[in-house]
Amino acid sequence: MRTIEAHLTQYAAYHRDKRNIASHFIGVPLIVFAVILAAAQINVVSIHAGWIVVGVASAYYLLLDKTLGLAMLAALVALTLAASLFAMVASTSFALLLALMTFVLGWIVQFIGHKFEGVKPAFVDDITSLAIGPLFVMAEVFFLLGAKANLRRYIEVRVGPTMARRDGKAITLEAVSAMMPEI
After folding, report:
1. Residue 70: what are its φ and ψ, rounded to 5°?
2. Domain residue spans in the chain?
3. Distance between CA atoms of 92 and 38, rounded to whole angstroms?
4. Cα–Cα dist 93/113, whole Å
């Protein structure tokens, strides 16, 4: 299994433009909520499939990193509780329509961010990036709060720091060196 450092570094290589990262703070939660809401329409034994999706995803994130995994668990449980409440009061067809609209809106926001970045989404080259995207957003929250500094440094040494505007500029060793303060 790849390490959290490997996953996040690979994902971060496609996400160095701050505008793109900001779009992920909106788009990724919308997409995750849409998937959970759709899964909440399927009952398995006495729970809905959204809880199963969250359980599997949380277990994976916890294997990668305990702290980020616990934060992901809390965020995913909150989204699942919201989806569960919505599923209880709405018809299945309305809940699925809302899930579809939310999913599409989330992807529109994502693609706008990648237009700013000038780089295709990471999942085009590595399908596992679809599972890493939410973890990347959580890691970025930690970085904004000054936490997980060693993980941030590990990533930035390899793919450079975030920048106000990337506009499709290639990330090369020379470019990373020019962006990085002396280590």
Report:
1. -65, -40
2. 4-179
3. 9
4. 30
Over the stretch 4-41, which tens digit does the pLDDT of each residue have?
Answer: 999 999 999 999 999 999 999 999 999 999 999 999 99
How many angstroms separate the CA atoms of 136 and 148, rounded? Answer: 12
> How many residues can be counted in the chain?
183
d(CA 45, CA 70): 26
Average pLDDT over residues 66-88: 97
Amino acid at 96: L
Give the C-alpha separation, 50 to 79, whole Å: 10
- Asked if 3 and 11 touch (Cβ cutoff 8 Å), the reply is no
Q: Give yes or no for a contact between 148 and 142, defined as CB atoms under 8 angstroms apart.
A: yes
Instruction: Write the pLDDT tens digit of every residue in 101-137.
Output: 999 999 999 999 999 988 888 898 888 999 999 999 9
Q: Which residue is it, tokens 């305990």?
A: 66
